[in-house]
Input
Amino acid sequence: MVVLLAALAGLLLSGAFLPLGWWFLAQLSFVLLFIALESRGLAWRLASMFSYSFVCFAVVLHWSSTYVGVLPWFLLTCLESIFFLPLAFITPIRSWRIFLFPSSWILIEELRSHFPFGGFGWGRVAFSQSNSPLVSIASIGGGPLLSFITISMALVIYLFIRHKSRQGIYISVLVAIVGALPLMQSRTISAGTVEVAAVQAGVKHLGLNFNERAAQVFYDHLALSRQYLISTKVKPDVIIWPENAIDIDPAIHVEIGRELSELANAFQVPIIAGAVLGESETLRNASILWRPKVGLDGEYIKNHLTPFGEYMPLRSLAEFISPFAQKVSDFHPGSDVHVHSINSARISPIICFDLLDDGLVTRLTKQGNVIALQTNSATFGRSAQSAQEFAIARIRAVEHGRSIISISTSGVSGFIDRSGQFSALTTINQAVVISKRVQLFEGTTVSDRYRPGITWSVILLPYLAALALLRRRGGKI
Output
């Protein structure tokens, strides 16, 4: 019965993520999980913990099966679920060790965000809270602190239910957290604006072969951009295209470079575009700046490549599991960060999977005053992947105090302000140009400056307190 309760709790946690996006289900989910973990039997707690995480990840990551089948999705779900099994060892819940649960969860989130293969931070609790009143906490301690507070509030609610003699204490804790929310935010400084036109041209066919005709995606973005520039009454300072909008290297294929220059020169507008540079053994996923009368004037090479999508770890095993692995070309990662300068705007390019890398996003953000998230979701069809990525971007906007222009090849795309609110949201595979005068911000948030220290504080301080308690008890748990 407790395993079924844990599975139900995992299902509720998945509902906190998009497409449903009911953020409060996260707290309810953990309350039910704590009840399921009251069992004194370790085997039952292990089964409950695996059931909880498996059901949640199976739903949240279902988009990973869109075109490659059930087996890769199942294996990914199992791998992510195994990370959380150690939580069964710090329970049963009725022990004082329950107070280590939120910190332990954050430690596991940090581990799975870095290992294996560079990590996979998708599905962190914080990323379910883009609509939550708690979201401003991200500007203080990033995703880790937001996850910690979310789980800790659920723990206080659970203790309130289970310990009637101490309900006054737990009510006071909840009131204190809610009352402190207006203070738990860090603001950056307004520094002007930039007029942006972001182009989502869509693709002819959603799927792994979205770009089967070389340069088709490029010409679609070129045509839609030209049409917009002819008709608009407000000239943009910059046009931004998504990841892979230029799917062949304009330095090698001169006709592509010539078309880009003709567009930029004709309307005197620079273009920031996602481009595939190099060929075969030298492929790089890049964000390039193409200026009028200059041409290529800067590039950022994607640092954090997508394992099994842009390079293939364990290739022999992967090809045995899925025939689609043979179609994956190995890209080469960049090692430096770069921003595109357009007048007073310093645009930090973040390419798709980069978004999950806390440290990389912080480094890019510190050099710029606005973020351009360039992504390609065509390989995930009409699944929830794009909406979930957009929700992560909303958390990043709050965390770093920056506006974000999120532009996808096939959607969803939109503008996000520094408080996480969005506008001009597109639909999947809609061919559209969205435009806005986007606010620029200078300075850094508390999270930018101190997130690593805050993260390790919420992980280690409860354990240090537990060790002190053990010493006072003479080592008795």
